[in-house]
Queue: 4 jobs
Job 1
Amino acid sequence: MILGSIVALVTPMFDNGDVDKDSLKQLVEFHIEQGTDALVAMGTTGESATLNEHEHMDVVKAIVDFVAGRIPVIAGTGANSTSEAIALTQAAKQLGADACLLVTPYYNKPTQEGLYLHYKAIAEAVDIPQILYNVPGRTACDMLPEVIGRLAKFERIVGVKEATGDLSRVAVIRDLCGDDFALYTGDDATSCEFCLLGGNGTITVSGNVAPRLVHEMIFAAIKGDRKAATTIDADLRGLHTQLFIQSNPIPVKWAVAEMGLISKGIRLPLTWLTEDCFESVRAAMQQAHVL
């Protein structure tokens, strides 16, 4: 089981939108030096929605190669077509990803039984550890704990990224899935409490900007040290809010660029952070001691 701070990595781009692999390599080294426990390649924060399949897998391969086995790499391979999700997951396995992250099908709004059959098909098709990803705020599809419990019976389905922010689900999912099933939060604002309640880690946006602090906070929470965890989290509160002042990953890419780690590239229909937000994001970065 992967524990701790799993950073949903931004994808560096040049001004024209092309992927900047030199900056990507620099980012990987930064995260390993700062104690990040694993990386997600091509998740929501990595702008997977605006990269084509070839680019998607090219970024996954680059991150796997740059990491070179030092920390786990989890590839985002979800799709709202089951056959496409299987193909992406097979490709990620062939490229050397350690696991995959599978967002619930978006836009077409499957039933709970449809969700079960979707993930069952992927689990039966590809021999790689698979993490479910429930983020109804983006997908208009909420996978209920009961379905997660059914899916946990598949050996290849090893965990879930639960991004509803509903802390009551931690105990419910744990009871349904058992102690060997990984529970990750996808909501930075509640990540501290999530892990204090028994979660195993976070798949984080804030960790792009303050990786060391997020790592330390999450492990304090996993160990049950409420005082240490909440003290660190107090310094991260601004990031948890301001990195979502506009659609993710707009603010976090601006912040990472402000740190000098990437250039100011993002793909349409996303646009660069507007100037009226600069100071509030910068203040949050200062609160987290990264500026």
Job 2
Amino acid sequence: MARPSVDPVALQVLLNRGVFDTIQSFAPGRRLVDWTDGVLAVERGYITVVEFAPALTFPDATVIDVAATHGHLELVQWLHANPLYTITGSPAAIDGAASGGHVKVIQWLAANRVDGCSSEALSNAASGGHLEILQFLRATYPDISVPGTAYHEAAENGHIHILNALPPVSHAVTDYPYCLMDSAAKNGHVAVGEWLLARGLDECSHAMDYAAEGGHLAMLKWLHEHELESCSEDAMNWAANCGHLDVVQWLHTHRSEGCTVAAVDFAAENGFLPLVQWLLANRSEGGSSAALDLAAKNGHLHVIEWLHAHTNLDATTAAMDGAAKRGNVAMLDWLRLHRTEGCSRNAMDFAAEKGHVHVLEWLQQHTTAGCTTDAMDAAATHNQLEALQWLHTHRTEGCTVEAMAFAAEQGHLRIVQWLHAHRSEGCTEDAMDWAARHNHLAVVAWLHEHRTEGCSADVVDVIIRAGHLRLLQWWYAHRAERCTTNAIALASEYGHLPIVAWLSARGEHTTHKAMNLAAEAGYLHVLRWLHEHRSEGCSIDAVEAALVEEQPHVFKWLCTHRTELRLAKCLRLAKEHGPKSLVRWVQTLIASRKQ
């Protein structure tokens, strides 16, 4: 794959903080951060950025896996050769490359690295029909058994050439939640069905149901002709739901399972009037009130008119409630003139949530149901200021303290300000807590200045877990609450390196818990920083956690860089918790250090 071109001048601008700050001062947008998203650069194959960006971060530290999954061989090779990144690979590299059909990447990884792959690689290759990859993996890693998912992925996607290349069907396949014939039927692969039948693999449980849902009439006929009984009421119900009239008619003529009232209800819900008409003319199951209710909700007036004129089906208040939620005044008018069910308080509540002021006005004029406090609360939550003002002026139900809390949580400062100025319900500490959790600094600052409810004692913990550095800096400058636990360790546990660095610069203390937690979570970029800038180190618990949590790149880094860890102990833990490839890796490392 050709290297993505990057203009060298543009790159220097993007990587120069001073130049970028000057440009940014004249343009709107998000503030520049002090680091570069390394994972995104690797996903896109931007090797120039990876080579030269001064502060890459990798919250998901297995970057070789990312590069391999996206087929960037040159980047995989560069990362492998770089001492900082050579250990950032795992079996997921080949697993991911198999999914994308990146055979050259897989061949290079197998020849140059010892990570190996998992059975998922075989399933991924089977799913994509990548025969060359499947054959290579089976030859290179003979100890990995073919999982049942590989057979099902091949059958579902019509890859007979893959099925031919796989070993004879094993118990792992027949023990799967559904049968191979079911998988073939999902996408209408008759040829796969014939392949299975020829080998005596005729067991099926829902094959006809799945074929009907997908509209695969040829598959249905084939299953029926070969007496592969796998049909239920779901077949006609699901076909009706998807608008497959020809399938419904065929099932009616050739099968006896029938359907339920759900068939008419589904067809009405999705606006398939010819299907509704055919079912009611040719079947006896009929429909339920859901037919009218759901058709009204989804705006299918032609279905509503026909059902009203030609059937005795009932409706409920859900019909008008649903129309109100969608803002459909034409439907509301028709229901008012032709039906007697009316609406419930949900109608106005739903309309307020969606900001349909014209519907609120219509409901106020033509109905008496009213609303609940949910109306204003929902309008506040969804930033519907006009609806909020209308309810305040024309209704008496009011709102609750949740209105301001929900608005704060969503960052709707103008709603918070309006509620503060015009309503008396106020708020609780939830408002500041929830705004902080979602990094709405402007809302937090306004609440701090204009409200007295404050926040919870552990709100700084929440901010650190979420990685909101600017908000944390504001908090330390304006409020007294602090982290209730080891702040640097908490930030390390969640992979937030900018916060780790900022807290460290402030003189915050920590313990070996910081490195242990970063190791357990797989945050190698945090481990590197702590290794270079802090002296607390780690304990053997970090090694064990990395193994138990399947973080081989972290395990390798710890063994390579942390001198307080005895390799003999690491080897014992690898034998207890890790794959054989890691055991061999530690043994090789021990041998190299003895030389």
Job 3
Amino acid sequence: MMPASSADSSSAPFKYRFNDSTLLDEALTHKSYVNERKGSSQNHNERLEFLGDAVLSLIVSDYLATRYPRLSEGALSKLKAKLVSEPSLAAAARRLDLGVRLRLGRGEELSKGREKTSLLADGLEAVIAAVYLDGGLEAGRIFTLDALSEELGHIESLQTKPGDDDYKTRFQEWCQRQYELLPRYVTVRETGPDHQKLFRVEVLVGEQVVGCGQGHSKKEAEQAAAKLALEQSDR
């Protein structure tokens, strides 16, 4: 792992100087860019994204297992899931200003692709793979852990309360204790364009609506609904 030179402006934000700059070019090239340039020899980043997902999983798993030798497999899995989630990876990508460096097709540009959580997360995975191929596993490990440094900084609080923000599980357990019933979640509304959907979900116990919530994914909306239902159950 070497600090980027000032001349190497494309890789400087990533704190890594590439020996093979074509790997970085490929990592930053979205499929839409290649599709709009028929006959182009430029590769898009989907294959690197595939590899980067595996490299990321190995690096994060190794870090957590080494750092927290007393945690159970289940607790480690929860921490890993948070670290490698789309929102976590996209947040890291934004800190690296990865979005402004992506090569996108016109359609993706018009739909604000540079701001999309999924594209940013995929792009970071592709860059992780590029670093791994260019510099080896140790370079990939240093780059990845540095990119996720802010998320890793929250690990202690995640470790001490690994399930406190899983409102769906907590509400399900409460319903089973109180009523011997399972809650049911119903999506009642979807609004917004495809890249910025907003979902509204109601949670029911039997036929009674006991909470509602909204979010940019159904899972997020369900968690919000379960949280409200739990708060109301404590009154």
Job 4
Amino acid sequence: MANIDELVRDKLSKDGQVLNLKAQFLREVGVKELVKNEGLKNVRAMDLSQNHIGDDGVKAIAESDVLGNLRNLNLASNSISDIGATYLATSKKLLKLRSLQLVINDISEEGEKVLRNSTDLKSLSLLKFRV
């Protein structure tokens, strides 16, 4: 895994609103470091697909103080279970999130239901579980 600050510098759009870290081998440890990066305060779209961040990585995202402006989040293929879905559904930080992609994860119908019925993710209008 490359240095997180270097990755952010390399992969963040010039306007600071889009971060594409697809398949960067971040795993849970890298995401926990990433979500502390103050340079992400203006990020509106983030692709973290194919990083195997797991439920603990999702928890770090859901609790991050710097991702409050995030509107689009791709977490496809990240070994996320119903536990991770619950972390997202109960997040008090991702209040502007509109689009969430969770394809190729381990989320059951119960986890899908928890997300669809979330009272915290009120802005969420696109929730994708299937390819």
